[in-house]
Amino acid sequence: MTAFVLVSGGYTGGWLWRDVAAGLRSAGAEVHTATLTGLGDRRHLAGPGIDLDTHIEDVTQVIDHIDPDDTPEVVLVGYCYGIYPSVGAADRRPERISRLVYLDSPMPQDGYSMIDQVREQMPAGPARDRTLSQQERAEDGWRIPAPSLAEWRAHGNLAGVSDDALARLDRLASPAPAGPYAQKVRISEAVAALPTTGVFCTTGGTMDIASLEALVASGLPLVQHLADPRATFFDMATGHWPMLSTPEELADVLLRAAAGEGHRLRSTVTTVATGDPA
Fold first, then answer.
1. What is the C-alpha separation between 44 and 173, in angstroms, rounded?
2. Residue 254 CB burial class (10 angstroms; 0-12, 13-18, ≥19)
3. In the chain, is it the N or the C terminus that has fewer CB atoms within a 10 Å radius of its CB?
4. Cα–Cα separations (whole angstroms), residue 213 to 54, 92, 96
5. How far apart are CA 20 and CA 249, in angstroms?
6. Distances (CA, A) of 58 to 11, 51, 82, 112, 234
7. With helix as H, strand as E and coil as C, how does the chain read?
């Protein structure tokens, strides 16, 4: 039996996965939705001391409370910022993770914070500027206000999200602690050895399978490991909130990812045999 651990990003909580979790459970999977400290229905625990280690421990505890005898395979799904505590937890418990899923998320790098990666790798534009200004907007130096309804509409990449789902997002969104975004993540080679799946939301997004294949073909060192046959990929023609816009399709994608399905990239690395000169 497979257990899915679903980790949401900033401003949200386990509630975000309601419809996806229902779809996974109807297919016979076990589902755990992680709410990170200071977010969602745990917003009352927010404080200036919350950092990335806090959120990594949140996810680690969810994994530790899944009985390995009953459910040996854990598929860990990190969405948006949620990939950072997910990768950190996978680094602590690699033996429990059968697959790590990057759901429309960055690819965390050892020694970088989320803010570091945005600053160095995100294309210039309003989205980058808004993310980098989060610390300046934080109330009391640590609490980042949740977007207003107008801000969700203007900047949330909500393609496919219904008015009812948007109203729910606006009602339940919580402020986010600033500390986790600025803390550098530490990742060992244990994470690199895990099977992975990347899911790209392509409507309004900046990456898809074709673009990634072009990067691999260019020889960019950062992405060459993604041509590993254990790495699979899916494109979803929706905006940044697939659990709200297309929950049934997302549940199907996650089930297929757990089964090892998905697109595989072609490696550009070739082996050349050489012998002694004649």
1. 13
2. buried
3. C
4. 35, 30, 30
5. 9
6. 16, 11, 11, 20, 27
7. CEEEEEECCCCCCHHHHHHHHHHHHHCCCEEEEECCCCCHHHHHHCCCCCCHHHHHHHHHHHHHCCCCCCCCEEEEEEEHHHHHHHHHHHHHCHHHEEEEEEECCCCCCCCCCHHHHHHHHCCCCHHHHHHHCHHHHCECCCEECCCCHHHHHHHCCCCCCCHHHHHHHHHHCCCEECHHHHCCCCCCHHHHCCCEEEEEECCCCCCCHHHHHHHHHHCCHHHHHHHCCCEEEEEECCCCCHHHHCHHHHHHHHHHHHCCCCECCCCCCCCCCCCCCC
Q: What is the pTM of this model?
A: 0.94
d(CA 205, CA 105) in angstroms, rounded, equals: 11
Q: Is 50 left (phi over 0), alpha (psi -120 to 50) or beta?
A: beta
Tokens of 143: 């609490």
CB 234 within 8 Å of CB 263: yes
- Which is nearest to 206 in space by CA: 148, 108, 121, 117? 121
pLDDT by residue for the chain (278 residues), tens digit each?
A: 899 999 999 999 999 999 999 999 999 999 999 999 999 999 999 999 999 999 999 999 999 999 999 999 999 999 999 999 999 999 999 999 999 999 999 999 999 999 999 999 888 888 888 888 888 889 999 999 999 999 999 999 999 999 999 999 999 999 999 999 999 999 999 999 999 999 999 999 989 999 999 999 999 888 999 999 999 999 999 999 999 999 999 999 999 999 999 999 987 654 333 343 33
